[in-house]
Specification:
Blueprint (H helix, E strand, L loop, with lengths): L1 E4 L4 E4 L6 E6 L10 H19 L3 E6 L6 H10 L3 H19 L14 H13 L3 E3 L5 E3 L36 E6 L14 E3 L3 H10 L4 E7 L3 H16 L5 E7 L2 E3 L2 E2 L10 H18 L7 E2 L2 H19 L13 H12 L4 H20 L5 H13 L11 H22 L3 H13 L2 E6 L2 E6 L3
Parallel strand pairs: 3-4, 3-9, 9-10, 11-13
Antiparallel strand pairs: 1-2, 5-6, 6-7, 7-8, 11-12, 14-15
Length: 458
């Protein structure tokens, strides 16, 4: 199995360091409902975990909640409630959203507000080592230039970072690039006691504290969205390696591309979001998963109702094959071994889920043809469900009549005949098959991967 490591920029063989694969994934800041951009990231890392477990690894998965943040405080003040109450409400809604998507819960869901003592220990040690400093105002900053490797994850030179994202100006900073480990309390904000006065932790320090506490050092895999590479993950590396004195902090960095809408990243701050709840309601959990997994995890994905609808129809075709009834006895069975091999090869190649899904669709077509020809399909259906489960696809019985399910293999046979007619350049006869299917409510679409069908809902 090979994975693309953001740090090295190379696809390398995944070799765990022990009996347990330790994975840390950055979680949400719960100040409003989670959106499909969040769903994209957590579906991807859920599939990574599922596949590692399918291959026989024991996985320990940790994902945090940033339950204290400027945005949480601002939204809570708008609503006249305590920040912790607001965060709790949206944590619970997030957990419900992940359950609806079939995303496995992490083994630990630490919260920033519950890990402050560990953060204070790390910050104190960083000050003692000379990597951090306190200010008269009660803030604590990390000295970015103190670590020579700073910038290696984002592949940037430290001298070029002054124009980078989220550089926070402060008259008390030694260097504009230095980032906050501890923020002095402002009037009316939640705060914790510290050696530097009341305040709250900076954003980056929580992930160092949580990962070290619940996973140890180093982590096997650290995951998150591409937008977290700089500054968040860059800063995690700096403070973690300065604290432990060991390199590397993470053995494999995996980052997923972001979900775009109208050419911009889908995000709460921009307001261009579709909530997970709306997405599940419109396209189903399997449909959303198929949409996300139809693109390689490292690539950006553009929100498109047309593509989401197509993903949902594709899932319906898989479900038709998975739920079809085969003959009680058959002299020959559909052989799924080649499709399983294709699926595993794709997943071993840096989680190439588009090719893995293509193998499932080809297997479903073979199941439908086998049913029409009187071959046994039970074993191949078990393989289809087994591999679909690796992707988190549930494949429930489709919302179709039994007649539509029973017709599926014959529709596949007609499409096979139509493909042969098109190859022979007998386009009139091929179009006749398409038109007759359309008269019976079956729409045929010719794609780069071949002809597919769906029930025309008018």
């Amino acid at each position: 199995m090979k994975l693309s490591d953001t740090l090295t920029g190379e696809k390398t063989e995944f070799i765990p360091q022990g009996d347990v694969v330790r994975i840390y994934v950055c979680g949400v800041t719960p100040y409003t409902d989670s959106h499909l951009g969040h769903a994209m990231s957590y579906i991807i890392f859920d599939v990574l975990r599922r596949y590692l477990e399918y291959r026989g690894y024991t996985v320990r998965h940790v994902q945090n909640f940033t339950d204290i943040d400027d945005r949480i405080i601002a939204r809570a003040n708008e609503q006249g409630i305590a920040p912790i109450a607001l965060a709790e409400r949206f944590i619970q809604r997030y957990v419900e959203d992940m359950a609806a998507l079939g995303v496995h819960q992490p083994h630990v869901y630490p919260r920033a507000t519950e890990e402050v003592p560990e953060m204070l220990t790390i910050i104190t040690a960083l000050i003692e080592k000379g990597f951090a400093y306190s200010t008269p105002g009660g803030d604590v900053y990390y000295r970015v230039r103190r670590l020579s490797r700073y910038g290696e994850l984002s592949h940037r030179d430290v001298d070029d970072l002054l124009s980078g994202a989220r550089v926070e100006p402060s008259t008390e900073k030694e260097d504009p690039l230095d980032f906050a480990l501890w923020k002095a309390a402002k009037p009316g904000e939640p705060s914790w006691d510290s050696p530097w006065g009341p305040g709250r932790p900076g954003w980056h320090i929580e992930c160092t504290a949580m990962s070290l506490k619940y996973l140890g050092d180093p982590i096997d895999i650290h995951g998150g969205g591409h937008d977290l590479i700089f500054p968040h993950h860059e800063n995690e590396i700096a403070q973690s390696e300065a604290f432990t004195g060991r390199h590397p902090f993470v053995r494999y960095w995996l980052h997923n591309g972001w979900l775009q809408m109208g050419g911009e990243k889908m995000s709460k701050s921009l307001g261009n979001i579709v909530s997970i709840r709306d997405g599940v309601s419109r396209y189903g959990a399997d449909g959303l998963r198929a949409f996300v997994l139809s693109s390689h995890y490292r690539n950006p994905l553009t929100y498109s109702e047309t593509i989401l609808e197509a993903a949902s129809r594709g899932i319906e075709r898989l479900a038709v094959a998975a739920n079809a009834s085969g003959p009680a006895e058959a002299a020959e069975n559909v052989d799924a071994s080649s499709f399983r091999a294709r699926f595993l090869d794709a997943m071993d190649d840096d989680l190439n889920t588009p090719q893995a899904i293509a193998a499932l669709h080809d297997l479903s077509r073979e199941i439908n043809r086998g049913q029409a020809e009187g071959r046994g399909i039970d074993e191949s259906q078990r393989t289809l469900r087994e591999l679909a489960d690796v992707l988190g696809l549930r494949l429930p019985p489709p919302n179709a009549t039994n007649g539509a399910i029973e017709a599926a293999p014959f529709i596949e046979l007609l499409l096979h005949v139509r493909r042969e007619l098109r190859t022979a350049k007998l386009f009139q006869q091929a179009d006749h098959i398409r038109d007759k299917l359309a008269e019976r409510g079956i729409a045929v679409e010719d794609t780069a991967e071949g002809s597919v069908w769906k029930r025309d809902r008018g």
